[in-house]
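TOPIC: backbone geometry
CONTENTS: sequence, structure tokens:
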Amino acid sequence: MKNAVVCGFVSVALLIGAFPSDSAQAKESKSTPKAEDKRLSSASLFPMALGSRWVYRVTDKQPGAEEEISASVSIVRGVYLLGEQVWYQYEEGDYSLWLRNDKQGQHEATILLDEDANAPKLDRQFLVFKSNPKAGQKWTYRADEEAEEPTQVECLGTDKQVKVPAGNFRCVVYRITEGEYASTLYFAPGWGLVKYSSKEIIDGEESTHTEELMKYFPAKKQIKAPIKRGEAKKTTGS
């Protein structure tokens, strides 16, 4: 889901104050899901519903600089029917991804603007995260057709324990490698991305970026698809 990270940071205090606390949610996050195939389905690992929001604590460490802590919000902003497929517009700060789920896993797409229809148009798509992966399984994809080498993906495990502010989770873990850039993503069944960490080495110096889930607000109403092709159902606010 996060190949490039462009986050609009706001203060942690403001974000926590903007959303009501939910002790029941905290208790649920610490529960242990049963190890069954449904845990590894795309619908479970990558829950997509219009209006769902995830709040993350963000930690950045740059060479020669002090550690910076902030926060970011990700939201499913829109649902589009492009061709015969339902696509979700997923926003990470000021950065948008176009995602869809099927039995294979989660796909990402590049989208163009159809000027005649004044609507988004599907350009190309690629499978990023496979559902029901096996530990050690590897595959590749090309987000950029002109890239010299494809992006490498590896499943590091399907039952990894991870602790974040939102609670304790058993996660499916993927590692994405592209040149000197590497990132590790932890997906918890029913919750989606609960932790993201990346590192990049430039001129021998390492920069790191980490996001840890603080709160997850699932959408109250599920929307399967918009009525008309090319149109969207969108949520406002953040």
Remarks:
- Residues 80 and 86 are 6 Å apart (CA to CA).
